[in-house]
Design a protein that fits this description.
The structure is a homodimer of 392-residue chains.
Chain A (H helix, E strand, L loop, with lengths): L3 H13 L17 E2 L12 H16 L11 H9 L10 E3 L3 H15 L5 E5 L4 H14 L2 E5 L4 H4 L4 E7 L11 H10 L3 E5 L11 H4 L3 E4 L14 E4 L1 H4 L38 H10 L8 H22 L16 E5 L3 H10 L2 E2 L1 E3 L3 E5 L7 H13 L2
Parallel strand pairs in A: 1-10, 3-4, 3-5, 5-6, 6-7
Antiparallel strand pairs in A: 2-8, 7-8, 9-12, 11-12
Helix pairs in contact in A: 1-13, 2-10, 3-10, 4-5, 11-13
Chain lengths: 392, 392
């Protein structure tokens, strides 16, 4: 067993060699806290507060209604194009609008319409609840049934009855990452569509939607993309499905000529058909500002650091947390979050937060520590583990 | 015919006697423009820019994830309660979430579920497009048909087949206000539900949802409520329907115990069941800040000024715009907008905007001038009409 002082030296050396260390300064983070909840709510880039205030003063106040034709109306697609490279999507397939839940509804209904002869929706049995809830509602409205299957069993369970399978790329409880390309290919062999939820992977691991042949995807922007609390989510529709993507929240913002104010809806030819109502500009432009921190960030470097932060967590836990059960896989089949089992997780996390180590917990018994390569340091990882040791 | 100088004196006298004149100072409006588009995008209250920046710095940055349990999660219902008095709703019936289009979808599907034996949805034939588009999609998903009927014919057209009728309280083209209590009663006599779209009436005329016996309502917050571009909309469900309000966008935010992360959805007992996904906090708290301008505003005084601004517009137009066709009714059956027919509306409005008179136009041929009693002055009304005279 190494001494804590050795781990301190190791952490310092890792931080000194970190090619992303300079990014930390772009975030507004109190030096007294160690923030491990970027997988739930990303930290604010420093320039966002002033940028949002400027949007209010200069665009809303200064230009008033004119701003709608000076960039606001097209912002959902423009900001989508900024996220596209982070998920391996060529232009024209991503739009930012509404919440993840609402985008799941659009995507699932559209998927059933693309697959009229198939009566079943498969849902990742370990899914974040909202995905399953929305799938149940879509099934009820479209006369389908939902079957819950763990992701790794989907290749064996998918059949000619399966319209679409909804899978979380990274599991929100354990941090496990699923094999996007492999599972998508298996679904396709059975003629099913693949709908991926990227909430816990976008901005963490490299996502390659186009290369994996993914049909549809959704994701949130307030975790590793740091867009702000409840910032609007995104919807991806693969180019091959765009013409036939027929979604039920056909509000005026998805119409091909919204200001013509016609009586009958005609979907926009492009990804704007994924829009519903008037876009929420203040939140959307806060996200737009937050995305500036990705300028010049190599996704490979990001992933390497995310894995290294996790490896260092494992190492510290092995040395300092005798007998702890870690739920996160140790291989590369993980996102940027470490989940530690704890029978009294709510109480333990409250104690950690009191000591400035801010993570969260999920039922029934998991402490979650998010590792955000843009701002998490190795020193903080050690602090998390040594603080946790005091409460076990 | 009176001289313009007489109208100038009249405007000055009206402004001097205006009991809401002091409110103008609470808005960030450039003195060089006369803003007549508060019926499309309300002007920003001065304090909103700093309040939003403070939310980013102090709540998001300062408290990070902890803010979700320090007011953010409940904000949709809390802010809804602030709007409730403006629409005559007792507590517990209003929630702020998503866009108007998305809320229309929730309300219309829920209405068809409350009326299983009825196969028709009536839609105001002059509706803002998105309402009709969403109704068409709801009909398609639920096996209903949509019939478009002008609002005043609904009492004659409603039948035992009608599940619900969707009516705009104030028509977006003409500014005409419909008789909410009378039409609702006529729908009820036939056993149909009444769903009102308040986008162009909330914050303008007094709305009395409870007293009129309205079943369901939606409305936007970025027009006369000044919530900011695309700020989240609201949904009203009358208390008598709350227990049976069964909406299809059953995301985790509407669940009775969202952080238990259960596998099966159970709707919240209260109006929070109208929520779908994670709330958009920056926009929601910008709206929250904007609502401060309503403190101490008497709705009767507001309505009186709104009508008086319109009356003065009519008077100026009668004197100065020879032969102009005004589409807005002259009685009290109108909102706070005056619509003037113009065969070249797009070009005329562009010329007006060039001269600092900012309204908008709607196809095929209507110039719209919104009158916001909290900040529009009689002097500006005269300026609008005299400027318009130059381009006719």
């Amino acid at each position: 067993m190494v001494a804590v002082t050795d781990l301190v030296a190791e952490a310092a050396a890792l931080d000194a060699a970190d090619p992303l260390a300079h990014k930390r300064n772009e975030f507004d983070l109190d030096a007294s806290v160690a923030y491990f909840d970027g997988n739930s709510l990303g930290a604010p880039p420093k320039h966002v507060a002033e940028r949002v205030a400027a949007v209010v003063r200069e665009q809303w106040g200064g230009r008033l209604i004119r701003s709608w034709s000076e960039g606001w109306w097209e912002a959902p697609v423009r900001v989508g194009e900024r996220i596209a490279p982070l998920v391996g999507a060529a232009p024209g397939q991503l739009v930012v609008a509404d919440s993840t839940s609402v985008n799941l509804f659009k995507a699932l209904v559209a998927a059933t319409r693309l697959q009229p002869g198939r009566d079943e929706i498969l849902v990742d049995a370990d899914t974040f609840p909202t995905d399953g809830y929305i799938a149940d509602e879509v099934a009820r409205l479209t006369g389908r049934t939902v079957r819950r299957v763990v992701a790794e069993d989907m290749p064996a369970q998918v059949s000619e009855r399966t319209a679409v399978a909804l899978i979380n790329h990274v599991d929100y409880v354990t941090g496990r990452a699923h094999d996007m390309a492999g599972l998508t290919a298996a679904l396709h062999r059975a003629g099913a569509l693949a709908l991926w939820d990227l909430c816990h992977s976008v901005g963490a691991l490299p996502v390659e939607l186009d290369a994996a042949g993914v049909d549809l995807a959704v994701g949130c922007t307030y975790k590793f993309l740091n867009g702000g609390p409840g910032s609007p989510a995104f919807l991806y529709v693969a180019t091959k499905w765009l013409d036939s993507f027929d979604q039920p929240l056909a509000g005026w913002a998805g119409d091909r000529d919204p200001f013509a104010m016609r009586g009958a809806y005609e979907a926009d030819a492009g990804i704007a058909r994924g829009r519903a109502g008037t876009p929420d500009i203040l939140s959307l432009l806060a996200l737009d500002a937050a995305l500036d921190v990705w300028d010049g960030v190599d996704r490979g470097v990001l992933r390497t650091k995310g894995l290294a932060l996790g490896d260092f967590f494992f190492r510290c836990a092995d040395e300092l947390l005798d007998g702890a059960t870690i739920r996160t896989p140790r291989g590369e089949d993980r996102g940027h979050q470490i989940s530690v089992a704890d029978d009294d997780a709510a109480k333990t996390m409250a104690a950690l937060i009191d000591r400035g180590v801010i993570g969260d917990f999920r039922p029934p018994n998991v402490l979650r520590f998010g590792l955000a390569p843009l701002y998490t340091t190795y020193g903080e990882v050690l602090r998390a583990v040594t603080t946790l040791r005091e409460f076990r």
